[in-house]
DNA sequence: TGTAAGATAACATAAACGTGGTATAATTAC
DNA sequence: GTAATTATACCACGTTTATGTTATCTTACA
């Protein structure tokens, strides 16, 4: 059996294959030229719309895809990533954007983008970001990182309405959230089922809800 | 009324006040010397344990706190951040760590840390990370950013068990998750309550659960 | 054209939940 | 040292949810 080695650049690094999805002709061409003109990188596809990209990329299987947000036609960059990422989980996607404060950051990340950089990023940095992404990093500016961290922290912090609960009530609510029956909660906490009822009743009053599901939704800040 | 201007460095930048919480004497002293020896930065406190830090930092009110993970005594760096961040939400915390692959990243972020860098970070980078943090960024390596993004994506993607549900069943489950009564769901979807029952029953069978709360927990990937 | 899957609907029964009232220790706060 | 809070407990009643069985109609598809 013959083992073929991967293409190597002059520096003996693996060549990173890149595809570009960007409707602006000038930007697309400039990136294509940059990538093909740089040792260790090869642009193996460039598309001006998401539909063609979704159709062609499965036969090209690039290591990295650079994706614009807004694309002509029915599909935007986020949906394009979602479709491809579902089929090819190991493919790495880098979102290209004009603004750092775009709320679509989160949609892009949820869809499967791992890197997130500005279009105005200097050529050398774009190349190193591509390599970084290929090697398992998530290149992004610290401004964008802060927004991701803030989102993370927001999800983590509990609803302030829960502070009105006593510690025992929080304990009961936690059991409720896990789906235990009253009798199971009673046995888990070594109290009578009637006491569980009473606690639940008090919890509902404090949270202004009338069902377990509503209480649990408040517990999880929804 | 006299207005006092903030201290300015030679470059006319505001001076960033920094506190350090780190039990290793050599590292702590080295950082203190670096910060005090650099124009635009001032180390206004250095502590070798969390308890003293929690006690003293409120009277110092530094712009930025550099925090070690492991500290002697009962309190670790994460709890120290949580306590202080609760009282001073505008204070910025930078986690100092030896390893990038620490699972405590997420605990630190939840507690309120915004930056996350390695102890071996070169002096000049440490200083720019401090400034970056002070100015609203979240300095972190792209390796750490990837882990945060991955965590984010994991939370976002729905439980694959839900794919066994028909679209109508997903609709019902969504209504269940919002806490609607069967009769409300029936009226919202213009079907009889008996049909709601049937759908719920089928959903439970497919998800292998026996209660609304368990179904909703699966719906939200918990 | 027949069959499988999905959405619709009804009925019966039992289990679980939600609401109201009442009460008693124990602890905490003032 | 008294008042307020918290955790505990019981009962009664009505509502909601969960399970089991059966049946009709439509759509997809082989």
UniProtKB/TrEMBL annotation, chains A, B:
GO MF annotation list: DNA binding
A Gene Ontology biological process term: regulation of DNA-templated transcription
TM region positions: none
CDD domains (UniProt xref): LuxR_C_like, REC_NarL-like
HTH luxR-type domain mapped to chain residues: 158-222
Keyword Secreted: no
Domain named Response regulatory: residues: 17-134
Keywords for this protein: DNA-binding, Phosphoprotein
Modified residues (4-aspartylphosphate): 68
Name by which UniProt lists this protein: Two component transcriptional regulator, LuxR family
Organism per entry: Chitinophaga pinensis (strain ATCC 43595 / DSM 2588 / LMG 13176 / NBRC 15968 / NCIMB 11800 / UQM 2034)
